[in-house]
Design a protein that fits this description.
By secondary structure, the chain is of the alpha+beta class. The chain has helices at about 60-70, 95-110, 115-125, 130-140, 180-185, 190-210, 215-220, 225-230, 235-240, 265-285, and strands at about 5-15, 20-35, 40-45, 80-85, 140-145, 155-160, 165-170, 250-255, 260-265, 290-295, 300-305.
């Protein structure tokens, strides 16, 4: 076999209260074609990808080389050809999509020595949390936690997202790395806030599993990360406070931000939300773009070509 192609969905993590636990995949894709080469090269086509390294220091090569090492194989020379429409470092799981894409393509090139579950465990170790990588691997909604021991499998449940559930992604014109957005979080939380989030996250999972969109506005409330990250994302507090009065079922910071997602159904609600977020972003003088995202229920797709 000459080449493998993987198509990986982008994702949103947390969905409000499910910090490091809940993820959802979107129809917004990174495509990676991978084959052996004489000399390693990473060719990239997509907004902002030209800022990434094209040699062995690229994240894609680093991850693929780790998979080869885990399989007991020497580090190879590889050619990656990458196309992506996923905005980088904006909270839509670009790094998770890259990690999943590199692992799945390298695994396919080696004729699949590792199962999907083993790849999930590797991806979680590399990303540090299971939310985005789980959604990129399995599609739909994924609920997962890190395993209690390094050797154990990652416990997760995946379920299908309703086709009619659209997300309006409000994507500010600035980067916010996950690393930076985690430094503003406290080390200790009040008992009341922990109880609040356990309740809301549990309610959210149950509401999503049963298609109870009417519960999202209250179930998506969070006290663990959004209140602290609001200082880094102008307009976030106002959008979260009032999106439900302007056409949204519920809203959240997407992953570590700065993107904000507003769940809605129907064109009338989309138009109402667009005017609402525009008023707030203009008031804060923040440039932004919007994307209308549909759920991806398939997860990563791999083919040999
Ligand atoms: N296709 C890619 N190829 C190589 N590296 C990538 C690719 N996509 C993302 N990355 C790396 O991942 C970094 C972004 O990771 P980060 O976790 O900060 O943001 P994100 O994954 O876009 O957002 P979030 O984790 O909040 O959803 C980029 O700066 C780049 O180093
Ligand atoms: N759960 C992660 C997602 C971003 O990688 C966070 O919010 O920091």
């Amino acid at each position: 076999m000459n080449k493998v192609r993987v198509i990986v969905p982008a994702s949103t993590a947390n969905l409000g209260p499910g910090f490091d636990t809940l993820g959802m995949a979107f129809q917004l894709y990174t495509t990676i074609e991978l084959r052996y080469a004489e000399k390693t090269e990473i060719r990239m086509n997509g907004p902002e990808l030209d800022k990434l390294p094209t040699d062995k220091s690229n994240l894609l090569y680093q991850i693929a080389a780790q998979l080869f090492a885990e399989a007991g194989r020497p580090a190879p020379e590889l050619l990656f050809e990458v196309e992506s429409t996923v905005p980088l470092t904006r909270g839509l799981g670009s790094s998770a999509a890259a990690i999943v894409g590199a692992l799945v393509s390298a695994n396919a090139l080696l004729d699949e020595p590792f199962t999907r579950e083993q790849l999930f465990a590797m991806a979680c170790r590399l990303e540090g949390h299971p939310d985005n990588v789980g959604a990129s691997l399995f599609g739909g909604f994924v609920v997962a936690t890190m395993p209690d021991t390094e050797q154990a499998a990652v416990p997760y449940v995946r379920f299908t997202a309703p086709e009619q559930l659209h997300a309006l992604a409000v994507i500010p014109d600035f980067w916010l790395s996950t690393e930076k957005a985690r430094t503003v979080l406290p080390d200790l939380y009040r008992k009341e806030d922990m109880i609040y989030n356990v309740g809301h996250s549990s309610l959210l999972v149950a509401a999503l599993a049963q298609g109870r969109l009417d519960l999202l506005a209250s179930a998506m409330q969070d006290r663990l990360h959004q209140p602290y990250r609001a200082q880094l994302v102008p307009g976030l507090s106002e959008i979260l406070a009032s999106a439900a009065e302007h056409g949204a079922w519920g809203a959240a910071l997407s992953g570590a931000g700065p993107t904000i997602i507003c769940f809605y159904t129907g064109e009338t609600n989309r138009q109402q939300l667009l005017s609402f977020v525009d008023r707030i972003m203009v008031k804060h003088q923040v440039g932004y773009q919007t994307l209308t995202l549909l759920p991806d229920n398939d997860g990563v797709q791999v083919s040999k070509i």
